[in-house]
Amino acid sequence: MDRYERILSLHRILKTSRYPVTVARLQEELECSRATVYRDLAFLRDALMAPVVGDGEAGFRYDADEGGRFELPGLWLNSDELHALLAAQQLLSRSSGGVLSNALAPLQARIDKLLDEHSAGKHWPVERVRVIPHRGRRMDEHVFRNVCSAVLQRRQLSFEYRARSTDEKTRRTVSPQRITHYRDNWYLDAWDHEREALRSFSVDRIGAARVLETAARDIDEAQLDTHLAGSYGIFSGPPKGVATIMFSARAARWVADEHWHSQQQGRHLPDGRYELKLPYSASRELLMDVLHYGADAEIVEPAALREQAKSLLQLALSNYEGRS
């Protein structure tokens, strides 16, 4: 039995026993050593604030006045779990451009308190958990909170949306389905009531967001997955084709460990190169990722996608011509 199960069993034994329980009986019931019994008793008393009284000779029990009212707290963690939670909290707050820092501040305080109880006031160097956002976009904290609230409360959301491609501003009323974190940025997957279709909205382009009293329309999970996760990246929709990309032996060491798509297929070739096949819908994001590898990547097929990449490379080259 692991420690969590032992603490629960120890609590149950002490809570239901009318008389002190000997260490020998606790060893038998908990299937552990004498030293482990004492460690668990100390943890129950000092970390979880249980009213444990007694000694090793007479046995242990809960204080008669407090034992009947005491219950284990809803959340208690060991040091390793607290360290992992602390690191996760830092990752979440810092990778969101600071937009979650204020919201997570109370959680930070509770984690610090629990760590202090485990370490007798020792300082934990939070600054050693370093998160460096990459190309994250600025968001309005009030908008982000309203978006999250609408998703979790299952209520419709009204907002102004400025499309990045056209800079056109429109008013939308949607039924939020999911909030998605993708490449250091947040997106709202929602049912657009005016267009009667699923759409993905970049949260940093949302303004004047207002949570409505109207209940959100729930879209079936299978339909969401088909529409939003069936193609390459955040530019969702039914896949329009399968791309075959060839990477040099040098780039293969990186690409072979990368996750580009849930349905990707990759294989190492005898000459060290790496072949990657994956479905895609809109080509823009796929082309950006392929061109990121420069001369180490080549789109083999389809021919139309290959020509798109070739045109982009020629346009990029033209920017460097005619200057000394």
TrEMBL record:
It comes from the Bacteria. Coiled coil: none annotated. PROSITE patterns: WYL. Residues 243-315 form the WCX domain. InterPro entries: CBASS_pafABC_assoc_protein, HTH_11, WCX_dom, WH-like_DNA-bd_sf, WH_DNA-bd_sf, WYL_dom. Residues 6-61 form the Helix-turn-helix type domain. Pfam families: HTH_11, WCX, WYL. Residues 143-211 form the WYL domain. This is YafY family transcriptional regulator. It comes from Luteimonas marina.
